[in-house]
Amino acid sequence: MKISLTRRYRFAASHRLHTTKLSAAENRRVYGKCSNPYGHGHNYVLEVTVTGPVDPETGMIANLGELDPFVQREVIEPFDQKFLNEEVGEFREQVATTENVSRAIFDRLKGFRLARLERVRIEETSKNSFEIEDGPSS
Amino acid sequence: MIRITRKIEFSAAHFYHNSNFSAEQNRRVFGKCNNPHGHGHNYVLEVTIAGEPDPTTGMVLDLKELKDILQTEVMDRMDHRHLNYEVPELSGQIPTCENIAAVIWKLLEPKIKTGKLDRVRLYESPELFVDVSAGNGTQP
């Protein structure tokens, strides 16, 4: 039997999909309206899944009293109400697509010591979601 | 292979307390969930069965049959109950979402005769859920 725990968090942030590696015309062609120079924003939903043994003393894989402040400190505070391109270090060099946001968040949360991070899933809107799992390619 | 999922809801009360812990330790580890008067949730349970559709009926299993199993094994045991006191399968365990989901898995698995129990997902709230599946995962 395998058991995992998933917690949902929310943050709101703006971004612009644009790369200096492409010309203005190519940026417009590839990213469409997401390349608007003033940026735009989303209400992101972040699902964090952890796995590991259920501690018989607490009945828990991870105590939310420890997971919540960790996610708050590592992701919600640095990302919420921010312009990702300018204010979150990972996106100075790479485009703030939700693929890249997922990987950056996964890397930030990997440091959680009290359970194993299994998956990060992000809903950029209610129509688009992105997932990254622990494994050789993450 | 096809997976089919049925969803049910039940409401129950619980609180978290470990008698091996001091009162201070219980408060520190379990926070508000340690309130001895208990509190409750509307649990949402999603049960997923995997299998090949029967060539005659086109069904992996009869959903009516699954509905009856969920009624007997989960609803009758847990709906409008206090999980600390009224569910023998949970006695001696803290009724966390992890432990409740594991108990539900163990209750359902032997009852599913057609297809295979693939996953139990238990939502304690829209913001928190536990998945149990077969496989070489960790205990319990």
If you had to describe this structure to a student in words, what would you say it looks like?
The complex is a heterodimer of chains A (138) and B (140). Chain A has a single domain (4-133), classed as Tetrahydropterin Synthase, Chain A (2-Layer Sandwich). Chain A has 4 helices and 5 strands. Chain A has helices at residues 24-31, 64-79, 84-87, 98-109; strands spanning 2-15, 40-51, 82-83, 116-123, 129-133. Chain A has a 5-stranded mixed β-sheet with strand order 3-1-2-4-5. Chain B is an alpha+beta fold. Chain B has 3 helices and 5 strands, in the order βαβαβαββ. Chain B has helices at residues 23-30, 63-78, 97-108, and strands at 2-14, 39-51, 81-82, 116-125, 128-133. Chain A binds chain B through residues 1-9, 49, 51-54, 56-61, 63-65, and chain B through 16, 18, 20-21, 29-31, 93-99, 101-102, 105, 126-140.
Largest sheet of chain B: 5 strands, mixed
Q: In sequence order, what are the helices and strands of chain B, one letter per element?
A: EHEHEHEE
Termini Cα gap of chain B: 27 Å
Structural class of chain A: alpha+beta
CATH fold assignment of chain A: Tetrahydropterin Synthase, Chain A
**Coarse morphology of chain B:** elongated
Largest sheet properties of chain A: 5 strands, mixed
Q: What's the number of helices of chain A?
A: 4
Number of strands of chain B: 5
* CA(first)-CA(last) distance of chain A: 24 Å
Task: Produce a short descriptive summary.
The complex is a heterodimer of chains A (138) and B (140). Chain A is of the alpha+beta class.
Write the layout of secondary structure elements.
The complex is a heterodimer of chains A (138) and B (140).
Chain A (H helix, E strand, L loop, with lengths): L1 E14 L8 H8 L8 E12 L12 H16 L2 E2 H4 L10 H12 L6 E8 L5 E5 L5
Parallel strand pairs in A: 1-3
Antiparallel strand pairs in A: 1-2, 2-4, 4-5
Chain B lengths: L1 E13 L8 H8 L8 E13 L11 H16 L2 E2 L14 H12 L7 E10 L2 E6 L7
Parallel strand pairs in B: 1-3
Antiparallel strand pairs in B: 1-2, 2-4, 4-5
